[in-house]
Amino acid sequence: MHKIYGSLTVPHFSRLVLVPSRIPDCNRKNENVISLYLILDAGLHNKSLHLIAHDPSTNTIVVAHQGTNSKNILSILNDVNIFHVELDKSIFKQSAKKVEVHEGFQNTFRHTSSIVLTEVKKALIQYKSQSVLLTGHSLGAAVAVLDAIMLRENLDSSVKQSVVVFGLPRMGNEHWAKFVDSTIGSEFIRVTDRKDPVVDLPPRLLDYYHPAGEIHIEDVDKTGQATKIVACPGQENKHCAEGNSIFKDHTSDHLGPYFNDISFGQDACKMKSS
Prior knowledge:
Layout: H1 10-16, E1 24-25, E2 37-41, E3 50-55, E4 60-65, H2 70-77, E5 84-86, E6 100-102, H3 103-126, E7 131-137, H4 139-154, E8 160-166, H5 174-184, E9 188-193, E10 214-220, E11 226-232, E12 270-271
Parallel strand pairs: 4-7, 7-8, 8-9, 9-10
Antiparallel strand pairs: 1-12, 2-3, 3-4, 5-6, 10-11
Helix pairs in contact: 3-4
């Protein structure tokens, strides 16, 4: 498993997509990503904001997807189209039988999948890189996971891939969870924050399951620093987010803070005034 403390800069990458093509004003929290070289900016009018960048400090290609606010993601997860559909075999040719995912997540992924695959391949050659980092928050986390499986099928096995996502909802059925574990399990971390209700949706009653790889933030101090972080072995560990009571969930926890006072949402990373 990844050393989680080696992944503490990842929330910066994930949040940076909120203001692509610009230097966001996130106080001093954003200093370690200002040196990113932007390869692709989806633009503010794209349905699914994302960016692809090169991190010269680690020679890594970074793919980040924008999330959505808590109210919107709860609407998506409780929509009438909540039932899952078969994973798109035209993209995921190695998909196992009976693997199904949330239709809305797969549709959002399709908007950007082709360009992500093309640009990542080009960037790996251009920068002579052997490393890809995929990240996102909320809906963006779900898209990043689908990206990761697509890239693992299409990139050389020598390319090291890290997948670190935040506030990931359940994405598919039990066959999906097992497919994620077998495909990117050794590369995958999903971070859950305290009493976030989004990570427990859609409900297991509708045959939705999380893959393994959970890291759970149990407590945060007044400065936004995570004071207790635990590893959660296996799928749906009842000692972590799966054990939360629906009567004590806090929707605001979905936005963070994660680790070093990093929160998501439109107000978390504003534009610098010129």
